[in-house]
Amino acid sequence: MVWRPEATLTEKQIQRGMNLVIGDGLASEAMTTFTSGTFLTAMVLLLNANNFQIGLLAGLPTITNVFQLLSVWLVRRFNNRRAVTVICSFLARTPLLIIGLLILISKTIPVESVIFILFFHYFFGSVAGPCWNAWMKDLVPERSLGDYFSRRTSYTQGLNIVLGLLTAFIVDYTKHHRVTEELNVYAGLFIAGGIAGMISAACLSATPEPLGIRTQGNIVNILQRPLRDQNFRHLLLFNSAWVFATNIATPFFVVFMMKRMGLSITYIIGFNIISQLCSILTVRMWGRFADTYSNKTIIALAAPLYILTLVGWCYVGIYTREYMNLLLLLVLHAGMGIANAGINLSLTNISLKLSPSEESVVYLSTKNIITALFSFIAPLVGGYLADYFSNRSVLIDAQYHSPHFQKVIHLFELHEFKFLFLIAAGLSFIAVELLVQVKETGEVEKDLVKKMIRSNIKSNLKEYFVIGQLIDLHDAFRNLIRKRLPGKRQRS
């Protein structure tokens, strides 16, 4: 098959391409569900991985983004984003098949080998990423970016729920009834994930590509252009600070629930499903708001909710009754799902909007490379801090004594992973402050957005009540801190 870009695409070709990209997303989501996240963490824990190795695995998908410089060179050399994306996607799926086959043949595999082989999976995926993003920017009409990708996200997350729950039942059944076969189940997941990834690449191979504008000039000067763009530089600063703050804690949620809470895979996947459902139910709403107002406004609304969930993780396990801890985990996962739906969608869209069409690959590659460094360092720092705080703790209790009654209430407790959660919350709060400097085309004044969203509350209270309350949350925190700092002049 000859993958040649076309100067113009008909409406029928665009629609067919957008449908194929949804097929790519579904197959790719199946691959991701089987070979990453909870199941990957559970597998390496079964192989006796330590906190540093878990942090290293969490950082691999991002540190390999530094190789996205190859995307820039390949697009300049061939001006064929589809060919680069499809070929690299096929190469990225092959390591998954290798891991699965090695486990089936040898019945075990060192954690170091898993990390080494997965490096190539993420390496080729990183090279394909910017080409795919730039391709989608030209394929999908800008007026419907938010609605289309929110719809695609809702489909992929729906599939994630079904596959995740089914796989969790299989893993837990094997663990309790045929424990010697548990590692073989993970081998099967990697093989199935590799096959699903090949199907994803096949969908992309049939998707049409509009002809892109080839960038001209010296490669070093080209890579400096995004850094000379002041507004894009502000976006890079916020994005880097945000991913560093959140990735200190995120990779260790599953480890905490498995090692400290003793929860089974089914419970953990169940909580993830709650998070996915909340994300599905709100992502279309976030997409509509992003198209109507701005992506920056959506981030400003969703980020405070995510910060609250990070603080909430510090209280997991503090209650003596197990059902209270499970209920808190359910609430936290729901909040994370709602917040992440808005943040991830808006970060993708605002990056696309601030990238000039003729240099989108360069801009997106630069963003991914810079944020990759922070995303990689964060879980390594988190792993080190988890080990450092493993023999340190903070406990605050309230005690009541009387002649006939005594009661101790745990108010606050920090130990090992919980230190990470609190540190991540503080750093995330600082990161949100950097969002103010980013300017987005079509941005609506915040006061007007408040007025518009609150008017919707009256007609649809159930859908918008939480959003309406979150609008002022970050401002309230910021003003409270400034009142405590002498000599600080409040900004309007």
Automatic annotation (TrEMBL):
The chain crosses the membrane at residues 21-46, 52-75, 87-109, 115-135, 155-173, 185-204, 235-258, 264-286, 298-320, 326-347, 368-386. Keywords: Membrane, Transmembrane, Transmembrane helix. The keyword Membrane applies. InterPro entries: MFS, MFS_trans_sf, Sugar_transport-like. It comes from the Bacteria. The keyword Transmembrane helix applies. This is MFS transporter.
